[in-house]
Amino acid sequence: MKKIILSIAICISINTIAQSPSARFKDGLKIYLNDDSTRFIQGTGLAQIWFRYNDNNPGSAIYGTPKKETFDVGLRRVRYQVMGQVTKKVSFYTQFGINSFNSLSARKPGLFLHDVTAEYKIYKNYFTLGGGLNGWNGTSRYTSSGVGNILGMDLPIIEETTNDVSDQFVRKLGVYAKGQVGHLDYRFAAANPFPIQNSLSPVAALSGTNSAAYSTKAPEMQYQGYVKWQFFDKESNLLPYSAGSYLGKKRVLNIGSGFTYQKDAMWYRNPNLNSPGGMDTISTALQQFAVDVFYDSYLNKEKQNAVTVYAAYLNYDFGPNYFRNAGAMNTANGTVGTASFNGGGNAVPLIGTGQVAYAQAAYLFKKDLLGKNGTLQPYASSSFAMYQKIKDPVFIYDIGVNWIIAGQNSKISLDYQSRPIFNADLNGDIHETKNARRGQVVLQYQVSF
User: What domains are there in the chain, each with its CATH number?
Assistant: First the structure.
């Protein structure tokens, strides 16, 4: 009986809201709560579906079966967002969904929370405080990427250095401050990193000497910040996630810089000189610093043809010789025989102690290039990393094209990615194996509302 009464009450409430003169349904799934549209509740959704061919790394296997190549279909991302401006000063934001679901994933994945935040605007747009499970990260622009408007086929994951190791897909529980003062946009955050023991992905254990790994001690607080100077149009700071392209609708030039710091996040072993055969375990901080520039501008405001350029210098310090292999939605779950240093599938030494240069660029043709079928946006991106552990550069590049059918709401991306293969020599040094590069081709369809 109670359930029946509750159901009736909910239906009456929905009907009342829908018929109320202050409720306005416009701009998609958005309910305005007052007549001047300053208070609202909004819902959005997104799906990115991959159709992929991958030339697997040497020695790749699926449950012990050798696989030289793989064709797979996967859900790279499925996301739902609900956000709202409750009062003039109070707002909330939630996001939930799944990531990287393919045939090798555990079946029947459950939707999980990405973001749950509430914030209070203390003084205009100059100073806002918020907290919860959030992605208000520092270091660089794409340490917090907007998944709905990525420039290329996928995010610059090389800038998401702790992804699913000490965070939940770049989100952590913590507090943040943000604001815009004139041309200056800033964010600062303090968060509790997740212990690596409850990471869903395997985390390398401490082994050898002078080779850092994530510490299993209780994590210290992590501090982050990012500031940028906006020369032309201002970007929204409503959400933490930065756009990859505005598709000819804005004129943006930003220069930014950021950092991340966590005391004793890492540790490594070294011989104890005072005790023959003994080893000392030394804790060290996680430290990151970056500078970047982002330019995205229409060339002709009416035609909306545009160029996009982004470049970043990233300095990563995870302790001596740290590295981590990673591959997006990996196409293998093991290796057999003589495997490369990369590991199986499409993995590559992606993150490590050292320095990285990352860049991406695109040209957007006029908005009606294909008539009612939209327009095209060819692009290219690359990362060039020099890591302590590896003697040769890790050079990865992508070339592709976005078919912009209906803005970011309906988009098809065709992407080719080339990655290097590494192996150890007789001295144990890691070098690139020349003429052994591997590639993958991905066709992605994105639909969003």
Answer: 27-448 (2.40.160.10)
